[in-house]
Design goal:
Elements (H helix, E strand, L loop, with lengths): L11 H4 L7 H19 L4 H4 L2 H10 L6 E4 L6 H9 L34 H15 L6 E6 L6 H10 L7 E6 L10 H6 L13 H4 L3 E7 L3 H11 L6 E6 L7 H5 L29 H15 L3 E5 L3 H4 L2 H6 L4 E3 L4 H13 L3 E7 H4 L3 H9 L6 E5 L16 H6 L5 E3 L4 H12 L6 E4 L23 E4 L4 E5 L4 H9 L6 E4 L2 E3 L3 H10 L2 E9 L4 H11 L5 E7 L9 H8 L3 H11 L1
Length: 588
């Protein structure tokens, strides 16, 4: 049996030895390779299947890595990784010590820019193009690939706006498939849907208005058309935009038909494309679903409640409110800054906005949280999803900074429920009306309580509670890491006290003072960064009131944590069940 074309390609220089008429076969082999690996190892599927032909064409026409290529977000970079020296290790993708699920500069010279959040590619490639110009390198090509969902973000427009008044040698490729993770939204999306292959939108062409040479739209799965167009664009100077139309999930029937589900489908049958069913019977709910269903219940009783998400209705489970009350739930696209200030504007008019946003993406709207919400003391309710270590998505997606970056903001209440029921109570309490903004952080995935649909109760803001009484050592935890603490101390013969602080700010200083008076040894545990985190606030309080306790803080160390399973990363950070046990026993 002859060796496959793909097996002969270790680097793009090998790809360029093929003839044009061999490339369609290579595309089929590459598509099958991605499907077969992701079927068993999991990861981002649909986006990568949609750019198979584009990836081949880019590395065939351009002299990578000398020519510079940036992939926006990076969900779609699997074919790129496979063609750039990582085919034999691709099965380790997203696993501990394996390949990153996103382009990463330390991993390969072909990964020119680290990504993971959207809409950065145009600014990055412009910076590279300006650098080449300053160095006098007029031959180097600079290419950014960005999706229609990402180009609608404010940062992408900032990059386009600047690039349009430069004469840099750069090419922006707009990969238009009408979907990010969920379907794209907004006026720009509606404008782009008027474009068909060979028929560009001529009225008020926003790209041409920004001084870009606009080409296309062309079929992004037609290799011949891609090759000819890219070859021609190499010779045209100045900022250019090529509009290609593709199908997310191309080549796998189910992925084409159910693009949301097959963005990152989990395990599936590579031959049929069918998902391998997971038995979720009698499993506890996902925290996202507790939020989503509880919000619908609250909104049915309170017509002032509105929901907002920046492009994550499915992931955050705001989709339930969008289905029930489409006029009161808003997907604003990849626009975190806008989402936060939109919520602030609503709050000024007496609405009760629940802004659900992943912890790692809330970082992108930090100025708005401070300036537009907290400074004006507007009671926006931030539902901070994916807080803590999220696992295989790695350093760009871990929600480990939010305790530190939110706790330092005046007027901000910061809360972290221990479980699904407490999350429900916190959402209800916030809905009743607060005098300050609040951030309620909760993790990705399932909790541990099946019967969570209890009647919601109003909580006292800033009140902590004792989960386990002890004698010599007290553990103070916040958030769902309390489960690891409970499991850890169950196996220790000594009685270890365990206190849960569902409110990180304001702290329950009355109870904290009693703990500091009663226990000489105290261990704080959080699933966030230690520097500036929950443990730091405990130590600050102890110092302020001249306590001399021995306080140890467990959490995420002062380094970026990469990808692996959540349990593996807990172990690395010392906040696994075993890690907590070890520290307790050392202090007994």
């Amino acid at each position: 049996m002859p060796a496959s074309l793909l097996s002969k390609i270790k680097h793009p220089s090998d790809l360029r030895k093929l003839s044009d008429d061999q490339l369609p076969l290579l595309a089929k082999e590459l598509r099958d390779f991605v499907i077969n690996i992701v079927a068993t190892k999991e990861g981002h599927l649909g986006a990568s299947l949609g750019v198979i032909e584009l990836t081949i064409a880019l590395h065939y026409i351009f002299d990578t890595p000398n020519d510079l290529l940036v992939w926006d977000v990076g969900h779609q970079a699997y074919p790129h990784k496979i063609l750039t020296g990582r085919r034999e290790t691709f099965h380790t993708n997203r696993q501990l010590n394996g390949l990153s699920g996103f382009p990463k500069r330390s991993e390969s010279e072909y990964d020119t820019f680290g990504v993971g959040h959207s809409s950065t590619s145009i600014s990055a490639i412009l910076g590279m193009a300006i650098a080449s110009k300053l160095k006098g390198d007029t031959n180097k090509q600079h290419i950014a690939v960005i999706g229609d969902a990402s180009i609608a973000s404010g940062m992408a427009f900032e990059g386009l706006n600047h690039a349009g008044v430069t004469d840099t040698n750069m090419l922006v490729i707009l990969n238009d498939n009408a979907i990010g993770i969920d379907p794209s939204v907004g006026a720009l999306k509606e404008y782009l849907t008027k474009a068909k292959v060979g028929v560009k939108p001529r009225t008020n062409n926003i790209i041409e208005a920004l001084n870009f040479n606009y080409f296309g739209p062309i079929d992004g799965h037609d290799l011949s058309s891609l090759l000819n167009t890219l070859e021609r664009l190499k010779t045209i100077e100045g900022p250019k935009l090529l509009h290609i139309i593709t199908t997310k999930g191309k080549g796998l029937k189910q992925a084409e038909e159910n693009q949301v589900k097959y963005h990152a489908p989990g395990k599936f049958n590579a031959s049929t494309g069918d998902l391998i069913p997971k038995d979720s019977t009698d499993l506890p709910p996902k925290f996202q679903d507790v939020f989503g269903h509880t919000l619908v219940e609250l909104a049915q009783k309170n017509d002032k409640i509105v929901g907002i998400t920046p492009a994550m209705p499915t992931g955050s489970s705001l989709k339930y409110m969008m289905q029930e009350m489409p006029d009161r739930a808003f997907d604003v696209g990849i626009a975190e800054q806008h989402a936060v200030t939109l919520a602030a504007g609503m709050a000024t008019q007496g609405l009760v906005p629940f802004c659900t946003i992943y912890s790692t993406f809330l970082q992108r709207a930090y100025d708005q949280v401070i300036h537009d919400v907290a400074l004006q003391n507007l009671p926006v309710i931030f539902c901070v999803d994916r807080a803590g270590l999220v696992g295989a998505d790695g350093a760009t997606h871990h929600g480990v900074f939010d305790i530190a970056y939110l706790s330092c903001i005046p007027n901000m209440i910061v809360a972290a429920p221990a479980n699904e029921i407490e999350l429900r109570h916190m959402l209800y309490t916030a809905s009743l009306g607060l005098e300050h903004p609040i951030a309620i952080r909760y993790p990705r995935g399932r909790g541990h309580i099946i019967d969570w649909k209890v009647s919601p109760q109003k909580l006292e803001i800033g009140k902590a509670n004792c989960l386990n009484k002890g004698t010599k050592i007290a553990i103070i935890s916040t958030g769902t890491i309390a489960h690891n603490v409970t499991q850890a101390i169950e196996t220790i013969e000594e009685n270890i006290a365990h206190y849960h602080f569902g409110f990180i700010k304001p702290l329950d200083t009355t109870l904290l003072q009693k703990i500091l008076q009663q226990y000489q040894t105290i261990i704080t545990v959080e699933d966030g960064v230690i520097k500036g985190g929950f443990g730091s606030s405990i130590i600050e309080f102890a110092n302020q009131y001249k306590f001399k306790n021995n306080i140890t803080s467990l959490g995420v160390p002062d380094q970026f944590i990469h990808h692996g399973t959540t349990d593996e990363l807990y172990e690395i950070c010392g906040i696994s069940i075993k890690g907590i046990q070890k520290v307790v026993l050392e202090n007994l």
